[in-house]
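Treating backbone geometry as a discrete language has practical consequences that deserve illustration. The amino acid sequence and the backbone structure tokens for this protein are reproduced below.
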Amino acid sequence: MKKVLIVEDSVLMQRVIGDIIQSSGEFEVCGYARTVDEAWAKFNKLKPDLITLDYELPGENGIVFLQRVMSIKPTPVLMLSAYTREGAEITIKSLSLGAVDFFQKPSGSISIDLYDFKEELISKLRTVSNANLKPLVTTPQKSTGIKNVEYIIGIAASTGGVKALNFLLSSLRKGIGLRIIVVQHMPRFFTTTLARHLNEKSSLTVKESSNNEPITVDTVLIAPGGSHIKIHPSGNTVVLSDEPPRYGLKPSADLLFESMAEVFKDKALGIVLTGMGHDGTAGLLKIKNYGGVTIAQDPSEATIASMPQSAIDAGAIEYIMPLHQIVKKINELA
């Protein structure tokens, strides 16, 4: 069984989380820690396969421990986060630093009702434990001259997406007519924070989309958590939709990609990045059938390979590339 180190300042929550993990039959708790120093000592001694990490620790916070782990011996980390605006800020920062995923504590810092979410927590642990933590390849991007990308670009991402989007959007340059719409599987609050975080990293303008938001050059629109996003038939704006979740997801990348194919036809460019499940596959097939361009992040590079591999297996993908080559391909289309 895979060993889990629980880093949590509340002894009560240590017990709750530990009970759930021990009952899984897949994981075992190898240790508990309440502070960064204690966590670092037990991490080096016990050599866990994965870590659950709460941000709120006495003294130095959980981010300090996360940075140490990722710089010395990258290990899968699941953040446990409160469903608050402050929790969202911390979570996005953690994901950008290398945490694989997060789990929302249902009732704040002390959530005894976590027992009611046992299956969801174990499922997250299962996903995180299989994460690929290889560092992303970076290469300097040469300018291709001042031209305009004619394509509308849609990007789908889930688990591991914050890190991938951080790399991709910070590598793209303004002034070549980029129009990008992103579906990242996250709740509301978190997508708002994600947009703000990515905007600070990118030369493009990144913002959470509103209903009837104009599609403009040098702009990235992030679908809000809890709403689908689609292209208006005019091709000039996006529409937020309250349709039921697709495959339990809202927003769904399939709805975005399908609308892109219908409106932009062979000028639609769909990209699927890291994530669990198969969202994006059906939409990418539609883009390909309309003559558009489809790209999947190389599954061997993706933090979680399921989403890109699903699209590849379905025959929906024209190009399979690591992120740095996806940047190059977008620039080549300019």
